[in-house]
């Protein structure tokens, strides 16, 4: 319950916004961290091109989509085949994992763990910080995962449409979910990618007026090439002319991040119908029914491009119970400030 007067609520959310920004600023990656990671990417790309001439190693996930925190893992995708899909080498992904792992072991000081027989074969590499390179590096290298590169580009485009609000909200949710131990798909909760999609759904489809346009439904303003429309049978179109969009899209919604965060927590503790609905960013209204998709997981979030894929399929009954409990706790803390200092609320919350 909001027990504050409108004026007090306005002061509260304005102060909350400032506190969130101040809270995040020391945990964002530094320029130096980006430089070191980029150098690492290039070093590994050189090795990959020894295994498969012309191979590219591209960053995806948080290092490439604008939602990185300090010391986040690096997600890299190795592309060996040409755009037309013809393989440049005869190696399978599992073989590439074995061969490239061997080479990284021989030529660098990384710890290397090949996972050639995983559902998606990857190489995990890591290096402890040293006095010269005071950053821990943890990196997953996958192969031919072009859809992940595309969804990274989608998230980056959204991040660029309204950076102050979307980015701040997502970064805060990432820190909060990690500190509250709700960001662990292997033990029944939701990935960072999943929380990011929740935030996008909220800002695009729940908030009225919307904070963000639905980029998958903004019509193209130029002739598109076939490879911009379809990838492996999936419709990957979205409006990506961010420069134009930044000039032409102005949201009528003027709420600050503090207010949006409070409403995000309230919406997902009380209003969202976990039992019936599937979040589907690409659709007009943002929701489909579980029945219509024959999905029955606890939480259903359709991948923006892979319609048959539930991003939150790892969330268990217990996991969802915990997450919803934490949404409620967060609402309560942010709405009933016992303390006079808003910065203390954030410390309590995380
Ligand atoms: P962190 O900073 O690592 O916490 P992130 O933004 O890198 O967050 P994830 O590590 O969850 O996010 O995911 C990295 C990328 O991998 C994001 C997306 O391109 C892809 N990805 C992750 N999970 C899924 C999924 N369930 N379905 C499809 N793509 C996924
Ligand atoms: Mg990541």
From TrEMBL:
Location(s) in or outside the cell: Cytoplasm
Protein origin, superkingdom: Eukaryota
Segments forming domain PAP-associated: 256-306
Domain Poly(A) RNA polymerase mitochondrial-like central palm residue range list: 17-159
UniProt family annotation: Belongs to the DNA polymerase type-B-like family.
Name of the molecule in the record: polynucleotide adenylyltransferase
Full protein: residues contained: 219 to 568 of 1097
């Amino acid at each position: 319950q909001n027990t504050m007067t409108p004026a007090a609520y306005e002061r509260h959310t304005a102060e909350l916004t400032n506190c969130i920004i101040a809270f995040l600023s020391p945990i964002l990656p530094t320029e130096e961290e980006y430089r070191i990671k980029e150098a690492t990417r290039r070093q590994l790309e050189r090795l990959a091109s020894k295994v498969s001439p012309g191979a590219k190693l591209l960053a995806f996930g948080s290092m490439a989509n604008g939602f990185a925190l300090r010391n986040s893992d690096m997600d890299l995708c190795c592309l060996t085949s040409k755009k037309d899909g013809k393989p440049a080498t005869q190696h399978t992904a599992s073989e590439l994992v074995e061969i490239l792992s061997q080479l990284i072991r021989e030529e660098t000081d990384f710890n290397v763990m090949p996972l050639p027989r995983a559902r998606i074969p990857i190489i995990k590499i890591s290096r402890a910080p040293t006095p010269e390179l005071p950053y821990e590096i943890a990196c997953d290298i996958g192969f031919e995962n072009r859809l992940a590169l595309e969804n990274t580009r989608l998230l980056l485009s959204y991040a660029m449409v309204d950076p102050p609000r979307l980015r701040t909200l997502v970064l805060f949710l990432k820190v909060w979910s990690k500190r509250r131990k709700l960001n662990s798909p292997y033990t029944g909760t939701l990935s960072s990618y999943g929380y990011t999609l929740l935030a996008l759904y909220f800002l695009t489809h729940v908030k009225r007026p919307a904070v963000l346009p639905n980029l998958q439904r903004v019509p193209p303003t130029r002739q598109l090439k076939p490879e911009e429309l379809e990838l492996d049978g999936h419709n990957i179109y979205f409006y990506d002319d961010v420069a134009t969009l930044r000039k032409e899209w102005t949201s009528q919604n003027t709420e600050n991040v503090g207010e949006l965060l409070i409403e995000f927590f309230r919406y997902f503790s009380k209003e969202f119908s976990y039992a019936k609905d599937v979040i589907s960013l690409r659709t007009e209204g943002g929701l489909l029914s579980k029945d219509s998709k024959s999905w029955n997981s606890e939480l259903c979030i359709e991948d923006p491009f892979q319609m048959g894929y539930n991003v939150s399929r790892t969330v268990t009954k217990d996991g969802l119970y915990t997450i919803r409990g934490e949404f409620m706790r967060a609402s309560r803390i942010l709405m009933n400030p016992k303390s006079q200092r808003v910065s203390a609320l954030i410390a309590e919350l995380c």
